[in-house]
Design brief:
2 copies of one chain form a homodimer. Chain A is α/β, with parallel strands linked by helices. Chain A has 11 helices and 20 strands. In chain A, a hairpin with a 2-residue loop joins strand 19 and strand 20.
Chain lengths: 408, 408
Amino acid sequence: MPLIVQKYGGTSVGSPALIRRVAARVASVRASGSNVAVVVSAMGDSTDRLVDLANAVCARPGPRELDMLLASGEQVSVALLAMALADLGCPARSYTGQQLPVRTTSVYGRARIESVGVAAIVSDLAAGLVPVVAGFQGVAADGNITTIGRGGSDTTAVALAVALRADECQILTDVDGVYTTDPRVVPNARRLARLTFDEMLELAGQGSRVLHLRSVEFARKYQMPLRVASSHAAGAGTLISEGDSAVEAPIVAGIAFNPDEAGISVVGVPAGAVVTHALLEPLAAAEIEVDMIVLNASRDGTLDVSFTVHRRDHEEALRLVTAAAAKMPCTSVGGEPNLAKLAVVGVGIRSHTNVAARLFGALAREGIAVRMVSTSEIKIAVIVDEAQLEQGVRALHREFEADIGKNP
Amino acid sequence: MPLIVQKYGGTSVGSPALIRRVAARVASVRASGSNVAVVVSAMGDSTDRLVDLANAVCARPGPRELDMLLASGEQVSVALLAMALADLGCPARSYTGQQLPVRTTSVYGRARIESVGVAAIVSDLAAGLVPVVAGFQGVAADGNITTIGRGGSDTTAVALAVALRADECQILTDVDGVYTTDPRVVPNARRLARLTFDEMLELAGQGSRVLHLRSVEFARKYQMPLRVASSHAAGAGTLISEGDSAVEAPIVAGIAFNPDEAGISVVGVPAGAVVTHALLEPLAAAEIEVDMIVLNASRDGTLDVSFTVHRRDHEEALRLVTAAAAKMPCTSVGGEPNLAKLAVVGVGIRSHTNVAARLFGALAREGIAVRMVSTSEIKIAVIVDEAQLEQGVRALHREFEADIGKNP
């Protein structure tokens, strides 16, 4: 019997009526002859409401207690979904992250999954029960409850699917698949039937917020096929799997963007990798993800180091880098909070050398200045001012329209 | 350094502002030189709102899932209180029942505490931290989350105090102590400064809803002094401890009552303890508490068995007893859902033989029929029609007014 792991996000379980609808959908998968395990997020805006409560109680909620608080959200949704399933004649059992356990690192708010215990779930599946697992949460080795960050339920689902050796991991959400770019910005954006892990990784990493980046990394690492589809409508959605080299790939899979970038520049430090390491290491220790990094060697032998972080981390990153730069010769440290990233993604890019030229041409015609550039085999990304982001997305989608998303 | 366990109920932590007030009070206990561990219930009506959600999702929420759902309520309040304490410079750590662990039996919704793990709490106290423990919830040996029934947070607090060998367990609530009877029924009811465990047990057991019955049993068993006081006003409240036989006890501690009784009568079964056991055993198996039991032997050698249960359990109890009676010769089985209990409680009753006569006289003058009677060394309880309950409470408070609550 095939085994499918399904994940439903907060908007899909935002009310009792929606929970009953999700239960009916899970029951129909069971009835069609598949085994199914379910991962759910907290109901609708309940995580935001819990954060509001914390902020009403104190100025700076402690991270351990914030994770304890937030983890209650999924505990509510898993229990309600398990009840609703039982009510449809589909016996189910809910589990918190602590119960399975979903073992994580100890970094509150951004923990990483280390392992998923599946003994209870395997025995439930054998007994014909549907296990319903709380996403987003886990437990550290010291027994403290952790959360794995916003969007982390996707990662929980993939980790569970991998641990169970499931046939497919389905992310059921409020969109019906992965698009060539955000349809809110480009109305004629199209749904992609298939794409590769690498393409999805670039699209997700660049800010197409359909799937959480770490969940795609995880799926790629273990070759777990991922399907993104609508939680409330029928349809095959988008299947993300390993690329088939026999198939002629399209040039471009989509246009990705992320409006939440912020930049930090350190000017005039001594050249050498040891300096770059000294500047970036404090960020790694604080679990702040550094995105684009540009090194620029001056003729005087000094180095300018520029990089971007999520805007949320900008203030702390600037503080840490300023402190690190104070320990070395350095002309200045500056921050730019309002940047955005824009990228053309596709496995075809590696063999079509004119993509970069077309990208710069399309942006230049719109008068959009490119602040930083980063290229990979399947992506060309640029940093622009946030105010010009949407204009840039539309320009690139128009430029590559004929080449986009023509995969089978 | 003295160690106090404080328990705050749902109304005391019903909003962020109230949680901050509780935090300030806990911090002041710490500042006064006592160690303190805190037990809290879920915020305000959050348990009711969770039950409403469950009922909106399905017709009959499964008991395992209901406990999983309800336990999320205290997880929210402990995290918020720990944050608020830290914000006041009083570092704190929250714990769910599963984390300590609070080990319970596996009867969902009515589990009994078997043990409380205090290793984490002892180490927190030694490190100057305030442990904040979720009341009402625990974990069964199979790892499933359980709840110990409404009002169970009192029991959690006493069990924790006993496990920690605390000096006192304080139940901070929305009343400022234990009264001679319910002031809503008898406006001139008075607060008692002290009473014995036995008296409190009868008062609580008979329905004075200040303290949960099991918490008092637990406190008496381990001789843990219990103090009931207001969570929002100063005052010593009521201290419940072992009676001091050197002190001349007052005749009557108070008038207790419980409006939620229901009766079941089995008429014409064969005499003998084996029959009574056969009738009551199914109730014990279903964890339904049987309160008053009256056996009445007829001259024809058959037996009438009458007893009362909580009204909530009446329907199920009647079903179980009817099934048990069907297996033996039996004239009839009947139920009366609308009964109430009324009792005079006091350690002085054992040496004052006219209390019963005065009780029956006072009720007779009001035209109140007594349906069943039960006596103990410190209590005389009667069952009456629910409609006549409040009239009876006022009559008995008036009758014993001069003898009530005159303890130091």
